Amino acid sequence: MAGGFVYTAVDQTALSTAEIYGKALADIILKDPKVVAITADLAKSTKLGDVLKVCPERVINVGIAEQDMFGVAAGMARAGMIPFLSGFSAFTSMRACDQLHTDICYQNVNAKIIATHSGTSFGQAGSTHHAITDLAITRAMPNLTVIVPADGFETANAVNAAYDNFGPYYIRINRGFDRVLYENQDYGFEVGKAVEICPGTDITVIACGSCVFQAKQAAEFLKNADGLSVRVLNMHTISPIDVEAIQKAISDTRRIITVEDHLVTGGLGSAVAEVMAQYGKGCAFKMLGHKGFAMIGLQEDIMADAGIDANGIIASVREMMNADFEEDDNWDDEV
Amino acid sequence: MHEQNELYASKIFFNAALPLLKVIANDVPSIKAKFDKLTTVLQISALDPEAEGGKYSTHFVITEGVWETKLNAIHEAPDVELEFKDIETMNAFFKGNMLKLPKFKGIIKNFGAFTALLTTLLKLSALTGATEAPKDEETQTLMVKCFFYLLSSGISQLNKMGHAEIKDWTTKSPDRVYAFAVDGHPEVSAFIRIKAGKSRAGRGEYKRAMPFFTLRFDSLTSALGILLSTDDMLEATKAGRLIMDGGPEFGAQLGGFMLEVGALAK
């Protein structure tokens, strides 16, 4: 474990997930001469400032050329380096898709992709900069581990895990100042293992990224207002997905809602649905996310429009709680 | 006109307590032997001019020792029948007033079935009227099972009758299951499922989903401590004899309804 990153909640208020990525990478790059940061002319936007300060000679700007960035990274990784590539997720997943597929994943090289400005976190930049298909693309890539951290602490854990483990990683982080979910890094982060944020037996809300905080708020509201027991799972790793946690949620609560800042097609919801279909047990199920190209505007407004903010989740939970989870409608007492 | 509590109590006797005869007949070997290969119809009823068919009734169709319980149904020609003159008399009898005897019908022609029924009724009375826990595990198991079944069915029956507090509880509830369980003894488990004013008592472990709330005991004796009121609920919870899987406020609510059933059926 690379470890050693101690951020307080006070620091957090001034740190976006991307800022923490920059700090975490600066710590790693100082310790390991094999680590190199590569950017496609977005060093500032992708928060490489700290890395530039401590080790400018190992920050490479390939220019506005994401495809080249992936090719360069693949070559360096094959030569024994550990490249951390950073760029907007819309471009790392789509523009450089072929290079991601063939140079990185097919070669199974030890390259780490940090995809910033994910989902609709750069909402006002318009649809070209909305990354709402990247999970569908990346989770279909063999060998690629896909992580969507929920806050800065989880970003630090994800970056550490990517450094500690061989193989390609895709870490999907936001642009802005994400709400703080955890008090520190020590909550038991493990790649491929969901974190239970709230216990519950009525329904399970499975969320990733910025939607986890929204789900937690919704669960707390529903507990107080409706007396509902809502389990919230932070499914930070989309690939490989935590099959065991999903199966347990199906068995325990029989009602699942997935929430993601991504199209409902191909992302977290689809990954959960695949597990559910193969498990074979009945479950009321709803996927919350974008139904098409998102509106242009601030992320908060876009999330409200898509029903993936706390209020949208509350409405969906209430709707689903009216769904039966038993096939029969026999209300005679057993004798 | 009957007092509301007499109606509630009779419903609990007919639809929650008397069905336990089948449990006893299946679980107690000496009683099971009495019904072995017996084919008969046993009925317990209470006359009431306002009831459909002129009486309230629960009857049992026994085919070669296999029991089938029929609630709210009058059998026109039972082999043996215990017929009370009204529900108040029946309630008093089941609460221990042996002077409030029913009419015994069909005794001479079906003496074997009658004595078997009487033995089973006495066993039921001994189990539900006990003030101390039995010593042997077999009887402890049966007693806990009977209490769990009685409580879950009793609460459900009161709901179906429109008991104000219980109806309010079920009406406001989404689809939820409340369970009763003892660690290491899944055979005694019982549950009640409620949703939007409806309720259903069930037997065994609920396996379609994790119950919303489980009143779980660490042993049969711990369960009997609470069920027989020889133990204190708070002390038992503190000591780990009683485990509330779920919000304690929901446990307190369920505990209140258990006491309600207990008071009516005592």
Q: Topology as H/E string of chain A? A: HHEHEHEHHEHEHEEEHEEHEHEHH
Shape by Cα distribution of chain B: globular
The quaternary structure here is heterodimer
What is the first-to-last residue Cα distance of chain B? 22 Å
Total count of helical runs of at least 4 residues of chain B: 10
Number of strands of chain A: 12
The figure for the number of domains of chain A is 2
Helix content of chain B: 40-55%
What percent of residues of chain A adopt helix (DSSP H or I)? 25-40%
Q: Largest sheet of chain B, if any?
A: 5 strands, mixed
Mean pLDDT of chain B: 93
H/E element string of chain B? HHHEEEEHEHHHEEEEHHEH
Which descriptor suits the 3D outline of chain A? elongated
Low-confidence stretches of chain A: 1-10
What Rg of chain A, in angstroms, do the CA atoms define?
A: 20 Å
The radius of gyration computed from the alpha-carbon positions of chain B, rounded to a whole number of angstroms, is: 18 Å
Structural domain tally of chain B: 2
CATH class of the largest domain in chain B: Alpha Beta
CATH topology of the largest domain in chain B: Nonspecific Lipid-transfer Protein, Chain A
What can you tell me about this protein's structure?
The complex is a heterodimer of chains A (335) and B (266). Chain A is α/β, with parallel strands linked by helices. Chain A has helices spanning 9-12, 17-31, 49-54, 66-78, 89-95, 97-105, 134-138, 152-164, 211-226, 243-253, 268-279, 299-306, 310-320; strands spanning 35-39, 59-61, 82-88, 112-116, 145-147, 169-172, 195-198, 203-207, 230-234, 237-239, 255-263, 284-290. Chain A has 13 helices and twelve strands. In chain A, strands 2-1-3-4-6-5-10 form a seven-stranded mixed sheet, sandwiched between helices. In chain A, strands 7-9-8-11-12 form a five-stranded mixed sheet, with helices on both faces. Chain B is α+β, with helices and mostly antiparallel strands. Chain B has two domains: 4-128, SCP2 sterol-binding domain (Nonspecific Lipid-transfer Protein, Chain A, 2-Layer Sandwich), CATH 3.30.1050; 137-265, SCP2 sterol-binding domain (Nonspecific Lipid-transfer Protein, Chain A, 2-Layer Sandwich). Chain B is 45% helix and 22% strand. Chain B has helices at 4-17, 20-27, 29-35, 87-94, 111-128, 137-161, 164-171, 220-227, 233-239, 248-265, and strands at residues 40-47, 55-63, 66-71, 80-84, 103-105, 176-182, 190-195, 198-203, 213-217, 242-245. In chain B, the strands form two sheets. In chain B, strands 3-2-1-4-5 form a five-stranded mixed sheet. In chain B, strands 8-7-6-9-10 form a five-stranded mixed sheet. In chain B, strand 1 and strand 2 (55-63) form a beta hairpin. In chain B, helix 2 packs across helix 3 (29-35), helix 2 (20-27) crosses helix 5 and helix 2 runs antiparallel to helix 6 (137-161). Chain A binds chain B through residues 201-202, 228-229, 251-254, 321-326, 330-335, and chain B through 15-16, 19, 22, 69, 71, 153, 156-157, 174-176, 193, 195-196, 198-203, 208-213, 246-247.
